[in-house]
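SAMPLE LOG
Freezer: B-3
Tube label: C17
Construct: single chain, 201 aa
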Amino acid sequence: MTIICDNKISYVSENKNPTYINRDTVVKSLSPLQLKSLPFVYIEYKSQNLETTKNKSSKRDEIDKLSTFEEILKYAIDAIKLKDDYFFNRIRELKELCDSEEDYDISLESLKTMFLFVEVIGSISKPSSLTVSESGIFYLEWERDKNNSITLRFKKDYFLDYVIFKPSSHINQRIILKGSMYALDLIDLLNGFNIKIHKKI
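STRUCTURE (predicted):
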């Protein structure tokens, strides 16, 4: 087995320990056909996005320190630059609606996850809807049409559920992606699929 990781290539067999060789030296010495025939190749460059990862983690650490609705909202208003006040006004409206009901209260953990997602992804276009469930969980949805939409459900610990509809590049049908993952990983996924909810359509 051959593993390429952090610019090194590791040859692993059942009875031997990994042997590390400089990746650049090996790759330059092998033809494309030889590289293709390697049993398994895993490429990862951890150093490339190290600074970006640190910046994202620092944002999460800042939000983690906050403990009240007003603190979290103030942080978001200062950190997230939007073209109008709809987003924050809607959150205040939802908070007031929850406060008016005895059994309802917003989830501060859900709110933190939503703000981390929005802050890191950048200036979002106006959502089609921003709602909160009876259990206080925030939902965001952007929908252009039935073949272009994304719905997010923000949970605790910076995880979220997502459902994405997007057109196929190969057939006349839409692709449906759904699952649950860490909020920052979903941003990477959206960027990989070139889904730009943070740009005006």
